Amino acid sequence: MYKSAYFSLVFIGIALIWGCNTPNETAQELVSVTSHQWPSEITERMQAQEDAWNQGDIPSFMSGAYWADDSMLFIGKSGMTWGFDATLQNYIKSYPNPEVMGILTFENKHWRALGSDHGMLVGHWLLTRGDSLEGLSGSYSLIWERIAGEWLIIADHSS
To answer: Are 16 and 95 in contact, with CB atoms under 8 Å apart?
Structure first.
């Protein structure tokens, strides 16, 4: 029951935030946000994630930014996954070796503060892989929460 209510609140919040844009706010204005407008700790955590991924270290990729809790939510092409450990296992299963993992690059585009301790970061990800594997790319919306003084991802919707 808790997870269902949590899921509903997260996505109702996202819908409300995006629905509250003023009519004069254009798509270009939404993507022209500069990195200094979101907490620098988030930039540092995402850089650490890129570094860990590019060294083939999925556990460090996860522990560097994701909330280590059963209520952490990941939504991807296979649907919803609840919990840090389940998400970690999905990553390990989907990316079994450094060749398949490739080189990860994040491009953060837009930050929306959701109060003093929450925010949503939207951007693009890119996996560049060797000649034998096609590269992959997509978009993400990350809900961050400041927990015990640290910014952590509590919900990730990546496509």
So the answer is: no
